[in-house]
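Backbones bend. To wit:
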Amino acid sequence: MAPPLLSLQNIHLTLGGNLPLLDGAELAVAAGERICLVGRNGSGKSTLLKIAAGLLTASEGVRFLQPGATIRYLHQEPDFGDAPTVLAYVEAGLGPGDDPYRGRALLEQVGLTGDEAPARLSGGESRRAALVRALAPSPDLLLLDEPTNHLDLPAIEWLEAELASLRAGIVLISHDRRLLESVSRSIVWLDRGRTRRVDRGFANFEGWRDEILEQEERDQHKLGRQIAREEDWMRYGVTARRKRNVRRVAELAGLRQAKREHVRPTGGVRMAASEAEGSGKLVAVARGVSKSYPAPDGGTQSVVRDFSARIIRGDRVGIVGPNGAGKSTLLKLLTGVEQPDGGQVKLGTNLSAVTLDQTRDSLRPDATLSETLTGGAGDQVEVNGQKRHVIGYMKDFLFRPEQARTPVGVLSGGERGRLMLAVALARPSNLMILDEPTNDLDLETLDLLQEMLADYQGTVLLVSHDRDFLDRVVTSTVTAEGGGKWQEYAGGYSDMLVQRGSPGSVKAEARKRAAVADAPRAATPKKMSFKQQHELAQLPDAIAKLQADIARCQRVLTDANLYTRDRKKFDTTNAALAQAETELARSEERWLELEFLRGK
């Protein structure tokens, strides 16, 4: 085995309080090694990486760096200092003997000229510039802390390819599973201040971690120690969640098959609604939607052009594309926040939406965690119509009881992300709008979010650059094709890539979808007749009556003893419920059709 270029031995560090953040942690990196450093938010990963980079001094322990070895460290938040341009910032990171042209070449690859003023860069541009500064010197050791934050999918795929071409030793912290699986050859797991290492790729991490936790649990039981309930949930509950995910993967496969049949109709098979209550069967219908904005050159830039889609209750729709393609604009159009320049979007009935804000600006930094969840009213949280104690609800999101009075402002980015999830999921909704929900979340919280979305009975609209998360969650993917064109593909991100990889089949499917979307318009008269106007006026009352009938039937069927006590009433009520649901779906379809006609 090659001698390490960098080694940390018996590292200890305490940052306030009595519990050490690092308690004997170790790390060794040899030339060409690919190590992913994993652990829960707040476990000390970034701190350990800063000690490795020489930016922070440990309370105890030894740091050794081979003489002459060069290190480059990527901060989570790049500091441009007083550099006048991006190129000057990159060149300031070069050392004697480094290729002076490599920085400019890498900048061109990531879509930057080098003449940009750092103060005017977007978050994604800042991250790309910082990556170029770290990569340009071709260092012996590369330490990367969340390199994919703020990057779009093309930039992430570029980074993946660039890292694969390097001969440097790499230590990588990331929540992007796909990147970790592609890059890593070894895993260092930081847990409760100590590190464990295994020389396997990240794809083996969860199984290896679960084996260790299960063995720990067995050992502690053998010693007669009792594990606190919150520790049992926060640590060993991970294993149970992973096992349940096997079932959820099968369920997602079923949903995707139904979505394929909806996107590519075969034999009239339609996606069945999973819930009678909640929104109407049709959540949103977009027909020929277009949106443009003023361009810097004085013209207009089309971000959405002639887009059509039907979103049905229970769909999980992922929206992907490069930064600036218009993902957030498309999301706002589909939810009625913005109006299109051309075409129409009609929203279904009884929609109750909740939005997960990626900036987390809605969180008050001076409010405590408990106040944020309860709204400052007592110690109870209402979830799905039931009161829960705030401490119990906090545990569901991996918070400790003693954090109840912690101000939101001192929480880490990942903890704020978990808090936003807790707030959003406590609100009654049947439509969840998630804009980059995975930012700053650790791998265990991502598992938790995936599980919660699998249990969610409503509709999900999701903007994300996390390829693995998209594959695990969504039933269809809407992707930017360039020039304002967007296309929907059945399945997750990987499914979309496969479908786009066969140009003939993709075009054929696009023609089918266009024909299906245009057929109702071609068959519909240009103007409403008096009869149609009367029908449209009557439909809201008819829909309300059907919803009341469905609610009444459901109340009757909640009687667990009804089947044995009165079989005839059970059968009659069940049949009435099925008929009312069918009539409701038909009425909602007709209402949307007539609303479109009225809007012409």
Notes: Residues 229-263 form the longest helix (35 residues). The CA atoms of residues 373 and 419 lie 8 Å apart. The domain at 4-213 is CATH 3.40.50.300 (Rossmann fold). The chain has three domains: 4-213, 282-352+429-523, 526-599.
